[in-house]
Write a structure and sequence with these properties.
By secondary structure, this protein is an alpha/beta fold. The protein contains twelve helices and ten strands.
Length: about 300
């Protein structure tokens, strides 16, 4: 019985020893393929944390099941020396999968938002404006299409949420990645595309695409003069975000140490430069904004999936 109690409460003794943590190398799990857009910022943070906290922070790519396998690893190990850096998919997957293997509100501890970024709703050059497209969709449901980077992707959900809030039926056309989706739009195979600023802004500046609106609640400097979609559909907002999380029961004292160690990255760092280039806002503000984001989005995506039948 004593052994069982010790195994079921791995963090009981940790607060008293918080100043000693980490006592061995820390794994930082990224649940996507090596070399991707999440891993590179994570390596910058890991290097800084290793310098500040005296142990190596080792980034480990664990792709699979749209990001679920890496999250499951962190949840299963429930070890303060195993952290997670992932995207907003952590709030989305439980809504789309029959059994994601984790509940982000129960099984993970928010440490900090790393960054967030709006997306853009774009059309090919010469397209009608958004009010015209929405009027067409209301008159003939399903006659206006939008592309995404895949079924169940963040861009898919951004489009589905916009259609639901606008009260129109749009035809979703999934592609295998943002590049294919952009190519299909430019070829005239779809009417609209929801995509990140880093993919869309160059096309807009070169005149191949026109930005119909941004998914932030307000206008953004990367696309001056382009309205927020909330100006057409009040209350609509959708952002891609990165976050660092610990396992269930991760002590607040350790969260504070991590957030404090990351503060020098907020200005003048390679991470700040990379986020600015991608149109993202660097956060690193601690657990409260991330906890609020999860509390808002987890039920939002569950409701949307239930209403629309979207699955991974």
């Amino acid at each position: 019985m004593q052994r069982r109690a010790i195994l079921s409460t791995p963090f009981l003794a940790l607060p008293a020893r918080a100043q000693a943590w980490p006592t061995r190398p820390v794994r930082v799990v990224v649940p996507f393929a090596a070399g991707g857009p999440v891993e590179i910022p994570t390596r910058i943070m890991a290097e800084r944390l290793g310098q500040a906290l005296g142990q190596p922070f080792l980034v480990e790519a664990r792709p699979g099941a749209g990001g679920a396998l890496g999250v499951q690893l962190v949840v299963r190990e429930n070890d303060p020396h195993t952290l997670l850096v992932t995207t907003s998919s952590v709030a989305i997957l439980p809504a789309l999968m029959r059994d994601a293997g984790f509940d982000p509100l129960r099984d993970l501890t928010p440490i900090t938002l790393v960054s967030d970024a709006p997306m853009a709703l774009v059309a090919r050059a010469g397209s009608p404006d958004l009010p015209t497209l929405l009027a067409r969709a209301r008159a003939r449901p399903g006659s206006v299409s939008y592309a995404s980077s895949g079924a169940g992707s963040t861009t898919h959900l951004a489009g589905a949420l916009f259609a639901q809030r606008a009260g129109v039926e749009l035809l979703h056309v999934p592609y295998r990645g943002a590049g294919q989706a952009s190519g299909a739009l430019l070829a005239g195979d779809t009417d609209m595309l929801v995509t990140g600023l880093i993919e869309s802004v160059p096309h807009v500046r070169e005149g191949r695409m026109v930005a119909l609106g941004v998914t932030a609640p307000e206008r953004v400097p990367q696309l001056p003069g382009v309205p927020a979609l909330a100006e057409f559909v009040p209350g609509y907002s959708m952002r891609i975000w990165y976050a660092m999380l610990g396992p269930r029961g991760f002590p607040a004292a350790l969260t504070e140490r991590i957030v404090a160690a990351l503060q020098p990255l907020r200005e003048g760092s390679a991470l700040a430069t990379r986020m600015a280039e991608s149109g993202a806002v660097l956060r690193l503000e601690g657990p409260a904004p991330l906890a609020a984001r999860l509390a808002e989005e987890v039920p939002l995506w569950r409701e949307l999936a239930a209403r629309t039948g979207i699955s991974a």
